[in-house]
């Protein structure tokens, strides 16, 4: 029969390396299993409808809503994208889109490529009628993927 001391020693020999790895990760923020290559750049693109005639302040607020919404989507569904985007400067670019139909084309393309996106629907308290979509955020995601959706658009 195996003695209690032998079982204890074997258990400690197996558990000690695991504990050491988790301490190392916590102390030095070491990623044990990288899910995304370090060389890959990430960005978020904010696409603003031009047919609504929003003022600069309204555009800024709508872009803020879009950024926060996309952040929450990425945190829930694409945490590795979010982590990479946060650790590489959180790049954001603002582009122009003509209208609602163009916005939904971008959303469909992003969805088909499995890129996180978020559409802002205005509350209707100021310049825009309630329920109108104003901005779409695409990303955070690898630059190469986001460019497949938005490369044809112009800067705002």
From TrEMBL:
Transmembrane segments annotated in the record for this chain: 6-24
Do you know which InterPro entries this protein is assigned to? Pep_tRNA_hydro_II_dom_sf (IPR023476), PTH2 (IPR002833)
Please state what class of enzyme this protein is. Answer: hydrolase
| This enzyme's EC code(s) | 3.1.1.29
- Any idea which UniProt keywords this protein has? Hydrolase, Membrane, Transmembrane, Transmembrane helix
The UniProt entry's GO CC annotations, sorted and at most eight, read: cytosol
> PANTHER family this protein is in?
PEPTIDYL-TRNA HYDROLASE 2, PEPTIDYL-TRNA HYDROLASE 2, MITOCHONDRIAL
Per the record, the similarity remark reads:
Belongs to the PTH2 family.
This chain's protein is named peptidyl-tRNA hydrolase
What is the native source organism of this protein? Cryptosporidium muris (strain RN66)
């Amino acid at each position: 029969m195996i003695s209690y001391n032998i079982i204890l020693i074997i258990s400690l020999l197996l558990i000690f390396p695991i504990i050491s790895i988790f301490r190392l990760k916590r102390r030095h923020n070491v990623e044990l299993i990288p899910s995304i290559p370090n060389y890959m750049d990430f960005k978020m693109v904010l696409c603003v409808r031009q047919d609504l005639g929003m003022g600069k302040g309204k555009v800024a607020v709508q872009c803020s809503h879009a950024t926060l919404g996309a952040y929450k989507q990425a945190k829930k569904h694409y945490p590795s994208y979010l982590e990479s985007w946060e650790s590489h400067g959180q790049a954001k670019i603002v582009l122009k889109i003509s209208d609602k139909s163009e916005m939904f084309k971008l959303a469909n393309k992003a969805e088909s490529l499995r890129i996180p996106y978020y559409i802002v629907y205005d509350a209707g308290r100021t310049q825009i009628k309630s329920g109108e979509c104003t901005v779409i955020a695409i990303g955070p995601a690898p630059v190469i993927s986001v460019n497949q959706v938005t490369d044809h658009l112009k800067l705002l």
